[in-house]
Amino acid sequence: MTRRLPSELPAALAPQLPDKIDGPLQTLGAWLLAFLWALPLIYAIWTAFHPGEFSTRFVLTAPLTLENFATAWASAPFARYFANTFMLVTMILAAQLVIGTLAAYAFARYSFPGRDLAFFLVLIQLMVMPDVLIVENHRTLTQLGLIDTIVGIGLPYMASAFGIFLLRQTFKTIPAELDEAARVEGASALQVLWKVYVPLARPTYIAYGLVSVSHHWNNFLWPLVVSNSVESRPITVGLQVFSGTDQGIDWSLICAATLLAVAPLLIAFLLFQRQFVQSFMRAGIR
Amino acid sequence: MKRFSLQLHGWLLLLPAASLLAFFTHYPALATLGHSFMSTPKANRPSVFVGPDNYLTLIEDPVFWRAVENNFWYCVGTIPLSIALALMMALWVNGRLAGKGWLRLAFFTPTVLPMVAVANIWLFFYTPQYGLLEQCTSLLGLPSHNWLGSPSTALFCVIIVTVWKEAGFFMIFYLAALQQLPPVYAEAAAIEGASRWTYFRRIVFPLLMPTTLFVLINAVINSFRLVDHIVVMTRGGPDNATTVLLFHLYEVGFKFWDMGYAAAITVVLLAVLALLALVQFGLLERRIHYR
Predict the structure, then answer these.
(1) Structure letter (DSSP) for residue B49
(2) CA nearest to B91 within chain A
(3) Contacts of residue B23 in chain A, CB cutoff 8 Å?
(4) In this complex, which of B97, B132, B194 lies closest to A26 when CB atoms are compared?
C-alpha cells in the first residue's frame, strides 16, 4: 500500500491520517482491556505454579513449585486423554481434508444435474451444526454400535460444509487452463486434482487445518454425550471429569490440570501466532 | 456419452461428503421432527405415536420457558457487547499503539483455548471468598456476594465468560476488513479535515457493514450453541437461572433420557436456526447490492 499524499507534503503540513488510532489515552485503554483479557490465564498460571496456601495470596516471594502438575498428572489418566484427543483430531482432519477436497472439486469444476441443489444442501450444515442434533445422532450411533468410541465422536464432523465451501472457493480461483493443460497431457481427473489443485490450495489447507484442529481439540458437549470411558474420552471431557468429581475442590490442582489440558494448543499458538491469526482471518473471509 | 461419464464423475466425487452429510445432518434434522411425535421408548414399552403430547409437555414445562427467557437475555448480553468490543480491539490493534503484538495476543488467546478449560479458571475467579473477584471487591470494602450462586447474577457471570471468549475471535474478522480498506479514504478525509470520529462513523463503519453482518450471524449462532461453560460452571443453576435452550435439551436428553421431549426441543432449536438462516439470506441480498 502506498500513501502518496503525505509524502508529497512537508512533514509539518502533512495531515494526520484519521485511520490509525494513537495517543496515550487510547494506549492506556487498550492495555487495560488487554490486561483484563489476560488476567484469568495469568491467575491460573499463578495458582498452578505455587503451593496451595498461596493460591489466593499474591506475594512475590511465594515459592514456585511443579508439585501441582505432578499430582494432577498422577491422579487422572491424562496421558490417555491426550492420546484420545490426538487420535480424534487427526482422524477428523484427515477425513475432512479428503472428503472435502473431492466434494469441493466436484462443485468447482464439474457440472451435473442437481449440483446447485446439492451445494445448497451442503451449506445447510453451516446453520444446523451437529451440536444441535446430539439427540438424533446419539440414537444413530447407538444403532451403529459406535457409542463410546473415538470413531463415533468424530463421525458427524467428517463431512464439513465449512471445509467444502472454503476449498470450493479456492479451487474456483485456479485458472481452468491449468486443468485443461494437464488433461491434454493425459492426466486423469484425480491426478489433476492431486497435482494441480491440491498444491495450489496449500494456504487454504493450512488455514482450514488450524481452524479444524483447534475447534475439535476444544469440542466438549458431543464428546461428553458419546464417551463414557477412559478409552474414548478426549481431554476436554477428561478434564471435566477430573475437576467435577467431588474430591474436595483443590484449585491448585484444577488449575494445573487445566493448564496441562490447554498446553499443547497454547504452546502451538504462541509459537505460530502469526499463522494462527492469518488462518482464522483467511477462513473467515468469504 | 462423454458428458454422461463426466456427470457421473461429479456425483462420485461428491458421494462420500453427500452420504455423511445426509446421515448426520439431513436425516437427523428430519427424523427429530418425526420422533417429536413419538413417546420415549421404555424397557418394556416401545415408542408409540402420541401426537402433539411432547409439544404439550413443552408448553407446560416452566423450565423450557425459563430457558427461552434466559436464552433471550443471553443473546442480548453477549451479541452487542462482544461485537462492540471486537470492533474496538480491531481498531486498537490496527492503530499505532505501543506493543500492538502483545495486545493482539492477549485479545486472541481465549479463542484457541477450550471453553471447558477456561470455564474452570473462571469458576475459580468467581469463587466466593477465595476467588479473585471477591478479593477485589472486599478490598474495595464491598459486601461478599456469591456471584455464581445467586440467581440474580449467575447468568450475567456466564455472559461475561462468553464475551471474553468470543470477542477476540470476532476481532480477527474486523482486523482483516480494516487492513483491506483502501488508504485513499483516509487521505481524502484528512484533506477535508474530518475528525477521527467522523471518519470512523461516516466511512469506516459503513464500509465494515458486511463484516459486521458476518460477525453478527456468528454471534447469534454462538448464543444458541455455546453451553460448555454452563455445564462446567453452573449446570444450569441456581434454580435454572442459567439454563439456556441447548443446555435444557442436553439435560432432558441425557440426564432424564426423555427422548421424545428432547426431540421436541430440538425441533424448536432447529426452527430458530432456520429462521436465522432466512434472515441471513435476506441480509445477504442487501450485502450484494453493497458491493
Answers:
(1) B
(2) A21
(3) 140
(4) B97
CA distance B47 to B40: 6
ipTM of the complex: 0.85
- Nearest alpha-carbon partner for A189 in A76, A108, A93: A108
The answer to whether residues B212 and B287 touch, using CB atoms and an 8 Å cutoff, is no
Contact: A218, B113; criterion CB under 8 Å: yes
Q: What are the phi and psi torsion angles at B38 (to 5°)?
A: -115, 155
Q: Cell 436456526 appears where?
A: B273
Q: Which three cell numbers stand for residue A232?
A: 474414548
A100: distance to nearest CA of chain B, Å?
7
Asked whether the beta carbons of residue B274 and residue A132 sit closer than 8 angstroms, the reply is no
Cell of A54: 498461596
CA nearest neighbour of A276 among A227, A229, A185, A210: A210
pLDDT tens, N- to C-terminus, chain A (286 residues): 444 444 444 444 445 677 777 778 888 888 999 999 998 888 888 888 888 777 666 677 777 788 788 888 888 888 999 999 999 999 999 999 999 999 999 999 888 888 889 998 988 888 888 888 999 999 999 999 999 999 999 999 999 988 998 899 889 888 888 888 888 888 888 888 898 899 998 888 988 888 888 889 989 999 999 998 888 999 999 988 888 775 567 788 888 888 988 888 888 888 888 887 877 777 765 4
Quick check: pTM over 0.95?
no
Count CA atoms within 13 Å of residue A251 on its CB side: 25
Q: Answer yes or no: are the C-beta atoms of B116 and B174 closer than 8 Å.
A: no
Residues of A in contact with B95 (CB under 8 A): 20-22, 26, 30
Closest-CA residue to B249 (of B120, B68, B110, B5):
B68
